[in-house]
Amino acid sequence: MSPISAGLAERCPACGQGRVFRAYLKFKPACEACGQDFTKADTADGPAFFVGFLVLIFFAPFGFIIPMADAPIWLKILLMLVLVIVTAIVSLILLPKAKSLLMALQISNRAEEARFEDRK
Ligand SMILES: [Zn+2]
Questions:
Q1: Looking at residue 45, what is its pLDDT?
Q2: What's the pTM?
Q3: Which residues surround the ion ligand 1 when the cut-off is CB under 5 Å?
């Protein structure tokens, strides 16, 4: 299973079986199927950045189009409320997928902090 499909399915990148989350955005300490350690993965604010960027590329233009539209003010307010709610819901749906995807890519690429090697 590729790390991308495992990440999008919120499954363990090592075995593709175990689920990676124990709560909405909380990783389990390890895979329950194969024992892969999830504590080394640190996605930090990466998922929020990518989801925010992607979602706003699609929804931000409506924030300009709706106020300029030739429509009654109550309709504009209603549409802006719907826009805000839809943007928030789409972001909340995409966040776990993005976090799981970044964690799967970190584990499969063995990404970790840079450190000095021992010279002997
Ligand atoms: Zn696993």
A1: 93
A2: 0.84
A3: 12, 14-15, 18, 31, 33-34, 36
